[in-house]
Amino acid sequence: MDASIRERTADAGGLGLATNPPDAVPAALAGLRIALVHDWLTGLRGGEKCLEVLCRAFPSARLYTLIHRKGSTSPAIEAMAIRTSPLQRVPGVFRYYRQFLPIMPAAAATWRLKNVDLVVSLSHCVAKSVRVPAGVPHVCYCFTPMRYAWQGRDAYLQSWSDRPIRRAAARTLLDRLREWDRSTAARVSHFVAISETIRGRIAECYHRDSTVIEPPVDTDYYRPDPASAREDFYLVVSALVPYKRVDQSIAACRRTGRKLVVIGAGPDRERLEAEAGPETTFLGWQPDDVIRDHYRRCRALLFPGEEDFGIVPVEALGCGSAVIALDRGGAAETVPAACGRLYPEPTTDALAAALDAWEAEGRPHDPAHARERAESYALPVYRRRLLGLLADVATAKERHPGVPRPHIAAPAAPTRRRRDG
Asked: Would you give the end-to-end CA distance of the chain in angstroms?
C-alpha cells in the first residue's frame, strides 16, 4: 500500500466504527486462542488500519511486533497485549528502525507462540516468519514480499553505485535475505494478498497461490458533497519521495499551464518545488478534512506511481472524483475506465498525452460509478471477507500439518520441505 502522508487522529470508532457497530465475529472463531503478528507499530497507516479490524474483532488476542512506539496507533491497537522483540530496547530504534533490516530476522525469531489455535500475520517484512506450533494454521495477510529482497533490490543496490565495496556487501546481504524470505514462506498455511498485483508477486517469489482481499477504505468519510463544485485544478496526494513520480505530474501540468495542487510531505519537496512552475501549489501535510475537500473539488486526481494497492485513488473515487492513473499496480485494478483514464507507461509524455486525450474527449467520468466502485472496498466488506476466510480456515477438516507443498507451478524449483514447530 502507498506510504501514508498523514495519520488521522483515531476516534473511538477508527475507520467509521463509531457510527457502524461491528458485525458479530463468526461463531467458528469464538473462543479461539488467537495470536496476531505485525512487523512494527510506529504509526497509523494502511497496514495498521487492516490490523485494527482484527484487534477490534479479537481484543483478547496477543499481538506480537518487533517494536512498538506507545500511543502511535489507534486506541483499539494500543489496548492489546503487545509483545515486542529485543529491538524495543535499542536506543534510538524508533528513528532508525529501518536500518536494522539485517538483524530483523533474528529479532523476529525471539517471538515465542504457545497455546494458540490460530495465527494471523500482517506482513511486508518479517511478520510472516513467525514460527507456529505444529498443526496450528497460520494465515498471512501479505502486503508484499519483503521489498528490499525482491522488487526494491535493484533500486537499493543502485544507491550504492559509487561505492563498489559496500554495493557488493549489500548484494550479498540482500541475496541472503531473499533466500530467508522465500524459505520462511513455508511457515504460512494460507496466504492472503492485498491485490492481484501482490498475488502475482507471492506466486513468483514464494511459489504459492493466495486469496485476494483488498484493504479497507473509509467510504463513510470519503464521500461526495453535493455542495462542492468541480474546479479547474488537478490534484496529487502523495508522500514526496522519488518512487511516487510526483515530478511527472508537475512536468505534465507545467507543459500546458494546467493548475496542480500537491498535498503531501517528504524529502523530495525542495527538489520538486524547484522544478515546478507558478501553476503548481504545494500545501504540505494536510489533515483528512482538507484532503477530502480537495478530492471533492479537483478536476481529477493524478496518480503516476505504481503501488501495491493504492488507497488514495479509491478515496478519490469515494468522493466522486475522476482519476488519471498509471495502468500498473493496484490502480490498474481499482480505477474503472468510466472513472477517468489509465495510461500505459510511467513517463511524463504518457501522462501528458492521457490528460490531453481525456480533456479532448470532454473529460468522460461517471461519479456514481466511481462511488459504487469505492464502496466495494468499504470497511464492512473487508471485515466480512477476512473474518469469513479465517472462519473457513479454523473449521477446515484438514488442519495445517506443517509445511504445505507449493500450490502452483513456478519457474524455479520450490524450496525443500521442512517441518516448523
From this structure: 31
